[in-house]
Design a protein that fits this description.
about 110 residues; about 0% helix; mainly beta; single chain
Length: about 110
């Protein structure tokens, strides 16, 4: 059974940083690209970032480019989202995603 478990969310002031983690199990992690997706209050899902299976190619939504960095640790079966210079509009539930599989989400709130 595929399992994705996010952690690392919280409350942070504008301009602050957080690092999200996604622990995975139940599939061959090193064979799959992985995504971070978020959902702001009252809005639909927004794709945030993607990393290829080897961790060598990354993609970002324009809204986070230059502020967020996706990475992965294949032996540990984890991947990460380093979020810097956070803005109130980054407030959302952040999900890790692989295909049709989703984590439970972790709340990120950016507020003074």
């Amino acid at each position: 059974e595929v399992q994705l478990v996010e952690s690392g969310g919280g409350l942070v002031q504008p301009g602050g940083s957080l690092r999200l983690s996604c622990a995975t199990s139940g599939f061959t992690f090193s064979s799959y690209a992985m995504n971070w997706v978020r959902q702001a209050p009252g809005k639909g899902l927004e794709w945030v970032s993607r990393i290829n299976s080897e961790g060598k190619i990354t993609w970002y939504a324009d809204s986070v480019k230059g502020r967020f960095t996706i990475s992965r640790d294949n032996p540990m079966k984890r991947f990460y989202l380093q979020m810097n210079n956070l803005k109130p509009e980054d407030t959302a539930v952040y999900y890790c995603n692989m295909g049709d599989s989703w984590g439970q989400g972790t709340q990120v709130t950016v507020s003074s």
